Amino acid sequence: MMDGEKARASAWFRELRDSIVAAFEGLEDRAGGTPGRFDVTETRRSAPDGGDAGGGLMSVMRGGRVFEKVGVNVSTVYGTLGERAQMAMAARRGLPGMADDPRFWASGISLVAHMQNPHCPAVHMNTRMFWTPHGWWFGGGSDLNPCIEYAEDTAHFHGVQKAHCDPHGTDLYPRFKAWADEYFYIPHRGRARGVGGIFLDDYNTGDWAADFAFIRDVGQAFLPAFVPLVEKRMGMGWGEAEKDAQLVHRGLYAEYNLVYDRGTKFGLETGHDANAVLMSLPPLAKWV
After folding, report:
1. pLDDT tens-place string over residues 187-236
2. Which residues carry out catalysis?
3. pTM, entire model
4. 38-63 pLDDT, tens per residue?
5. What are phi and psi of 121, to 5 degrees?
6. Which of 49, 191, 228, 283 stands the most exposed, by the fewest C-beta atoms within 10 Å?
7. φ and ψ at 195, to 5 degrees?
8. Counting Cβ atoms within 10 Å, is residue 64 exposed (0-12), middle (13-18) or buried (19+)?
9. Residue 195 CA, distance from chain mean position
10. Is residue 204 within 8 Å of residue 137, measured between CB atoms?
11. HSE on the CB side for 194, CA within 13 Å?
12. Contact 39, 60 (CB under 8 A)
């Protein structure tokens, strides 16, 4: 059942959430004026028979000085997979027996930040663990989504990701960077939604402790990869043209998350709180 491993993973995702929320509120404090703060809501998920099926915390800041909208969600959910989810899981993972025993457990953190200043990049990060009686695995990553790209910011973000991946194997960063480039591509627009990062799923080397250490480092890379970029850009001046470019870029982000994102599909398919699942959508966007 891996109860100890599940508890450790769930506790880590909550610890990472707490450190990110504190860092983001610290950025608000340094911006001057009235700082933004997170509104925190407990989310609960019910089983079809009305029983407990887990839940988590939805933390959202709106209208901050730095963050126009940012959500940092953690959840630990469990129950049985519906038929469609079973088929998708069995097809992707090659797991026999899903129909006979469709139990699952999943825990993770998911973050999306949409910024006030168009010079500050939007960002996405998540890490998660998934368990069924037929197998377990980790997934996640982070990617940068600037509407105005600065090459040095892209280089910094990727450099921090690489530095945190390399101790676990120098093959991992190039492998997961390429996966992110493929995964965050928007086919109907013929372009990527941002400048990439790393993405991984179905990650299981057979050594849970080693894999957990790696996914922890993926999470720990986030703040040093992202916060210095915000500190550098949040005081830059901008006007109507920059804001317009940001809103158009957010349209790409919304299209991707609603059409292609695995986490969005899984959350809605398994009955998780819709507001928490759709937290990633920007507050304002534009299509032209």
Report:
1. 999 999 999 999 999 999 999 999 999 999 999 999 999 999 999 999 99
2. 124
3. 0.92
4. 999 998 888 878 888 899 999 999 99
5. -75, 145
6. 49
7. -110, 15
8. buried
9. 15
10. yes
11. 28
12. yes
